[in-house]
Amino acid sequence: MKIEDQEISFKSLTKGENIPFDLLLLADPSMDLIAEYLEKSEVFAAVIQKEIIGAIVLYPLTQDSVEIKNVAVKPDFQGKGIGSFLLEQAIQIAKKAAYKKVIIGTANSSVGQLYLYQKLGFELADIKKDFFLENYPDPIFENGIQAKDLLVLTKEL
Ligand code: ACO
């Protein structure tokens, strides 16, 4: 894809190197959880003129399903279609790897993200009550709503 005539590429990042933790922390404030899932995940990035401006993390759950654990775009570049681009590319990668289902979770307070994921074909599948109260030490508020529950959405491939 292009923004303002500049090409944006999508590439896999080498484990241990180049991992944009600043970006991953935008989507998930727990460095402990990030470190845990990165051990088994593959990280991909959106790059513009050598600068990483977005990242997405794919975590194999079972032989048939893969979870998008994290998706984030640098604040200056948000709202330009890069999040959609990252999600669409990740879905294509999951398809090519013969997964049957992609899973993504987000907070009850993440209204924009819920809109975006459903627009891309994800459907609400499960609610993990009190997930954010039990797994994050500090209260999280978005859009004036406290993040309490994890909403799990799935997309059949
Ligand atoms: N609030 C309101 N609307 C939003 C939001 C939001 N937070 N995020 C996306 N949208 C809407 C856009 O308005 C747009 O609508 P349109 O298609 O009608 O114009 C649509 O979703 C697509 O937006 P993009 O431009 O493709 O998305 P963007 O590049 O901004 O990336 C992302 C979306 C990744 C959520 C970005 O806003 C971000 O990095 N946010 C902070 C980190 C975060 O919350 N990540 C997700 C956590 S859950 C998880 O990681 C599994």
Output the strand order for the largest sheet: 3-4-5-6-7-11-8
Give the class from helix and strand content and strand pairing: alpha+beta
Calculate Rg over CA atoms: 15 Å
Report, as a whole number of angstroms, the end-to-end distance.
22 Å
The total of helices stands at 5
Describe the biggest sheet? 7 strands, mixed
Binned strand content: 35-45%
The outline comes out as globular
Helix content: 25-40%
Please mark out the parts with pLDDT under 50 across 5 or more consecutive residues, or reply none: none
The number of distinct β-strands equals 11
Describe the secondary structure blueprint for this structure.
Elements: E1 2-3, E2 6-7, E3 9-12, H1 21-27, H2 31-38, E4 42-48, E5 51-60, E6 65-73, H3 82-96, E7 101-107, H4 111-119, E8 123-128, H5 131-135, E9 141-142, E10 145-146, E11 150-156
Parallel strand pairs: 6-7
Antiparallel strand pairs: 1-2, 3-4, 4-5, 5-6, 7-11, 8-11, 9-10
The structure holds acetyl coenzyme *A.
Residues 26-27, 68, 70-73, 78-84, 104-106, 112-113, 115-116 line the site of acetyl coenzyme *A.
